[in-house]
Each structure stands twice: as C-alpha cells, then as structure tokens.
Design goal:
26% of the residues lie in helices and 28% in strands. It has 265 residues and is α/β, with parallel strands linked by helices. It has one domain: Metallo-beta-lactamase, Chain A (4-Layer Sandwich). Helix 7 runs parallel beside helix 8.
Length: 265
Amino acid sequence: MDIRVLGCSGGLSDTQGSTCIQIGDYALIDAGTGLSSLSIEAMRKIRYIVLTHSHMDHIAALPLFLSNMFDDVEHRVQVFAQAHTIETLKTNIFNDNIWPDFTLLPTPEAPIVEFIEITPGDTFTLASPEKENAQIHVFAVDHTVPTVGVSVRMQNQHFVFSADTMEGPTLDNALSSLTKLAPIDTFMLECSFTNNKRELAVRTKHMTPAMVANTLSRMPELPKKLWVSHLKPSSGNALVAEVLALARKFENEINVVLLQESSIR
C-alpha cells in the first residue's frame, strides 16, 4: 500500500497543511492546503479526488489545483463527493464569482473536472495507471455537515480514515462493519480539542483524546496502528500532551502515532 499524508492539521499552521492524503501517485482523499506540497508534475498525475465533506480545510486547495490542469487536458479529474458537498462547491466556489466553473472549461464538452455523486455505503474502484487498483468504501460519520469516512484496501492492507467526526453509534457501527470487511491495519482518527473543551467538541462534532480512547475501547478489534490527526494548532502543547498520554495508555495494545505527516509504503 502506498499512502502518503500530505497534510493533517486541524487549522492554519506554519508547520503543516490541512487535510490531504495521497494514494499512490494518482488519487487524493480531500484537497486541503497539504496538497500544495506536491510539485506541478505530481499534481498532473492525479486522476481522482475523494472529498469527505465541504469544510474549507478539506477543500481549500481544490480550486487552485484544478487551475493547474489546463495544460494537460488529456484527462479530466474525477471528484467523488456527496450531493451536499458537490452542491456547496458549485454554489459557493465554482460560481464564476469566487472561481470559474471548471465543469464547463476549457469547453462544456471536455471539462477538466467531473463531479461524481457518492452516498455512504458505496464501494468503487480507483484504477491505477500502473500499480494495483484501490478499492474504496465510504461510510457515514457524525459531523456538522454530511460527511463520509473512507476505507482504502489495496495490496492486502486496509487503511481507514475517519474524516471529521465525533464519537458515538454512527462511528462505532461503521468501524464494526469495516473490521468484518477486513482487519484494519491503520486507522487515521481525528482529535481536535483538549479534554477540557469537551462541550465545544460536542457542539462542533469533533473529538477529544478521551473520546478517542472511548472509541478504541468499543472497537471489536483494534487496528495495528492509530494515526491521531486534525489537531487544532491553537490548542498547542496541551493537546499534544493529552494525545501522548493516550499513546502511553494503549502502548501494549496498539501503536499510537501523533501524526504530523506519515506514509504507508
């Protein structure tokens, strides 16, 4: 499995970009500012983008990324997203006021981007030009807007990305089903706020370290690795310390990594 985290910050930071995960050299999950770490040459190899939801930190680089595609019109980028995300992008971003409508450019007959609607529970294949295809399964998670998590299976490994979510039955049921599909090798789970901001986490439907621990305790089978991501930079060292304490708590059961950037190869 070839997965690289280009960005996973929960906000604006001088050390890392916001959420963007690269699959091989041909696909992305989300298009946050981490996408800007790719060279133009690498960007032009991207064929597919799976968007988890419409929030800015997950779509911020998409408009500028697509504007780099005009010199390579041999392929169009396929963007997989829920109806709410597609409609939000078309209404608020690709509206010829904020940014051009790239579904009509360079021509309506041959645009550089195609939006493909997905719904939770869908399974589809991202075809690799050279290597093994990626089997994608999207599942519902509980966030403030319609959001999907993403399961990626390739080369006998299983990577699961929670996207933005809070703890509870929706996530628990998804993880139970995914574990039955195939044991989870790496689980990338968000953790945005410190434990003393639980009320804020609940209102914004994000996670705290205590919520992460609760979620792990309810999983029928623990993953081999847990990548903790989406930390809010404004939370500073306090949140880092709580995540490190979480890692120590589970050190005999699971490899917990405080994710800055990482890869599976």
